# Entry
Amino acid sequence: MAVAGPMRRTFTYRVGDGSSLLEPGQRLLVPFGRTRKVGYYLGSAEPPPRIEIKPIIRPLDPQSYFSLELFRLCLWIADYYFANPADCLAAALPPSLKKNRISTMVWGTGDISHLPLQFQAKAKPGKRIPTDTLKSLLADRALWRQLQDRGVVVEEWHDNAATLKRRSVGYRLLDGASLSVVFGDEPADQLRFDSVCTRKELRQSGWSDHYIRRALAASILEPVLETPRRTVLDFVKPKADVVNIALTTEQRVALDSLTQALDSGFGVSLLHGITGSGKTLVYCHLANEVLQRGYTVLVLTPEISLTGATLAYFRGFFGDQVTVIHSAMTEKERLQSWQGVRRGDYRIAIGPRSALFAPLPNLGLVIVDEEHDSSYKQDDPSPRFHGRDSAIMRAKLNNIPVLLGSASPSVESYYHARTGRYKLLTLTQRPGVSKLPQVRVVDMRTEGAKGDLPFVSLPLKNETDKRLVQGEQIIFYLNRRGYAPQIKCNDCGHVPLCPHCKVHLTFHKTHRRLLCHYCEYMRSQYDSCEKCSSSRFLYPGTGTQKVEEAIGRLFPKALTVRLDSDSASGRHSIYHILADFAHRKQNLLLGTQMVTKGLDLPGVTLVGVLSADQGMDLPDFRASEKTFARLLQVAGRSGRADQPGEVLIQTYSPDNPIIDDAARQDYVSFYEREIETRKDASYPPFVRLVNIILSAANESKLESAARDFAERLRANVTTAKIQASLLGPAPCPMYHLRKRYRRHLMLKTNQTVKLVQLLSAWEAREPRFKLPATIKIVIDVDPDDMM
# Structure
């Protein structure tokens, strides 16, 4: 039995004669210490000797919600990423099914003489205890415990129904119904009706609530329930005429090769296509081949913002056979999609990494779009799995092909393609008259504007003015939200820090908020310095809010919309912002990395990268790769129709080879230089990494515990004869986060499975690795966030 908790432990329970009826992954209510928890059935096991085995309380579901392949995938994720199996199985369920069971307090059959007199008349066995009564009884904890012990009050557990509740929209009069059963004598004609009538309409025609209840009881009236919306996110409209778009020669060659692979079982193909080359169209045609063979398709996208663009293409191709699953949907919408997928109503499921677990029956193909994107890796909470790599494993478990696609593949994936582990397919041209944009690098040391608006160079201002006059659209990209990365007192120089993370608080002009982008600590209405009470401030640096404010002064003809996690915080707001821009309600889109990928906006002819240098100097071996990918991707948003596009990359490092490669849209040159750097430094794809992070509120205790843990880890690795090098312990780049100091140890190895098995056995032998209770440990396999 897997039960949620901090350790990778499983537990044994007695299930009685019904054990043969249980299915892998089925949820059971089990006693756990002094509480009750939801457990997941993993299979039968020999009971441990000389230990009393507790019985389960009862099954929560009549059957398992997991197919055998999904169950195996969850256990693989648990084993590879050092996660609790219960966390992995819970991650595969929609939120309404993951919640703990709801308990209700009811009156029991015990002696009510122990109850206060004012409640005795209400104590009917089996009836729910009213909220007000419950609060009064709970106020006296001693009395409450006595009532529980004597069976006067009883806790009753209820299942969360795994179905959508449907609202009644009216009533239908059944054929041949005789109203005299309800009304006595033959009623007036006005009481009869042919169509569906609401309760209000029935009342107006002479029906009372009493007669409606009698008619329902006599099966003369029938309630009519609302029909659930089949199309989730129905405001994402299908892309017009996508079925009639002719494939280019390159696309046809790629499609033919991928179609042949459908008959060859498991295999990984990498489609490396330049931005705007029509990778999504290839996905659609390949998915069509799979559906014609009677199978289903899973399509992963890295972010919610990309899901809409991909969904529009697939809906244009497949109509109502497509649904979407992601966290921005309501619980009802997610449950509706999940149920529809499970029943077979939808044959294609699209979404970010959470859609990995879509319960598609008879799966025939997995597609991972923008496979390089770091959003596929879940950093917190557990399970810390990688959506792309887990998708590959799901395809392997099903013995089906998986297709990875990107204009800037991850170094690891491209290495596997170049060395023959993956099949490499390329798209080097945009279809039709569309061409790659012209890219200019602007040296901000010599061409930057002077004064209080240094973030827009003169060349970018001139090109923007020209595009606005011509009625074209522009994208400005700046990977920093907020107004300024810090606020500084003009009199005493004080800069507010986050008390939890020891980093500068970002200034957001709305409500004059100071916000920590790591822990979400916030201070509102910061109008005076906390040190000297001055109200004069400086705002060093630039965020999207400051640029948005300045655009009105710089470009009077601009109709600007901002797209970042602040402006797009509402449900579905990302889709609406992008849809309005696509319909030319605005002509300038300003945003963070949300605007860099997957957007097909034919009206955009100019992209301005306001600061290409951000992120290049982070202490992360992937910093170069991430910077190059963002620049390549955002440049690809320009010139996607018949009008030529242009990109201006503003930088203080114009000679940096990463900037040069991005300007030339030359992925291969970037890769060949980067792969040599990775090889020399012994980084992926030549090894795999395991990052172990220890944290505590007390720094000196953390240092001591980290040194001791590192020594014991080295000894265990040596004893197990695992080839691994251990770096650290050292302070994390973000050494203080959410009130805790942090140290990490980095393991480089090509024996990840053996290493995780060692850690699992060690933890089972020494719970929590014998770390002090104040020390928290996180084990991150194949980490992406090195901070």
Notes: The two ends are 35 Å apart (CA to CA). Residues 159-164 have pLDDT under 50 and may be disordered.
